[in-house]
Design brief:
This protein is of the alpha+beta class. It has five helices and two strands.
């Protein structure tokens, strides 16, 4: 389905907004990502910028010391 959406999006020169929790799909599809936390924008940027954004990592994966405690 996303292939069809991408094809239409590109061929019609449209702006497309989609909300998705499948992060792999988001990184494969989006040119710009806006990450929300508690209804506020936490970060905005390209997929590469978001992947490396420390606040996004902390918000969705936890702090490094938190991960060590859970292991």
């Amino acid at each position: 389905m996303m292939d069809t959406v991408k094809r239409l999006w590109k061929s019609q020169n449209m702006t497309l907004i989609f909300i998705e929790h499948d992060i792999d799909l988001v990184f494969q599809t989006a040119e710009i990502i806006h990450v929300l936390r508690y209804g506020a924008v936490l970060a905005s940027g390209t997929p590469d910028e978001i992947k490396g954004h420390p606040e996004v990592i902390e918000a969705y994966l936890g702090k490094e010391e938190d991960l060590a405690v859970k292991a």
